[in-house]
User: What shape does this take?
Amino acid sequence: MDRKKIIYFLIGISLLGIFVYGFLSVQRESLNITPGLPYSKQLPEPSIPNFISGKLPVSMSIKKEDFNFPAELGLLGVSSETIKDSDAKQIATNLQFPEEPLIVNDVREGTKFIWSTSKKFLFITPSTGTIKYGLNTPEPPEVTNKKLSLESLIETVKSILSQNKIVQQEEIKFSSIDYLKVNPISEGFQKTTQTEAEVYQLNFTYKNSDYEILTLLPSKPLIFVQLLPDGSVFNLEVIHLKGVVNTNEKYAIKNYEDVLNDLENAKIVNLFNDRINLSEIKVGKIRSIEIDQIKLSYLLDSPSSKNLQPVFLLEGSINILDSSANRVQLYLPAIKNP
Assistant: This one.
């Protein structure tokens, strides 16, 4: 893929994300939610796109004794943090982009700065505090495997983020690591073992959050850095937030039986091992879904969200007629409304 195609591809992906986030933003803003204030009525569910309508044929193999989540939890109050134009250009200088950026003016998100060379790219959207940086190649290059320990990988990431003024390390904390390799069918990544990994994705969250903050695409949390086995950066994305606080008002969290009874209403948000679009899938073609992993997270469903709700991220196997997809991720709102 040549440089011009890569730039057009990146711009296209960015604009698609703007459209989806913008649509959800309008929905969220209409609720007029204020950080830290208790709700006087039933909570509206998070704005999760429903690409596949109908009841899903889903079951769960997780045992009740492995369902270890709190009985109640507060919302997470946040506000977006803008990036000054001067700071954006300083980040570019730190990452060794000497030239001036391509400037794109978006009707919703304002100015976007785009730097791109034959080897790497940098996207910065000041109004949403979003930074995307990585190598201008669709697949990770072959490098020497230095067999770095998890502690070394974490410190490497913190140093990269801090020294380049992307985000200060005292603001964030490590949450999880995903070992990834290229999937030849979907041309994306799939999870693998540490031994076979071509990329290590280190996920971080803000220190005041008890749980990881995810976006509408769960494989891309709020802060993540993908490192090659030699410790160099393949790709990273950061969304700046400020005022991250746990609100005082507590809400009941769905228990094991609640989740079992509500599984068919979970929403599919990600498929693995197939390039098919979710909107192209009819519920009747889904033969089965079996959930074997579950975790509790907070969901940033729009850049303008002020209170983040907890959701369950469900993952498991899937069988779809005429599809090679074999793994799936779903979101299920975690708060039990009266």
In short: The domain at 79-244 is CATH 3.30.310 (TATA-Binding Protein). The two ends are 53 Å apart (CA to CA).
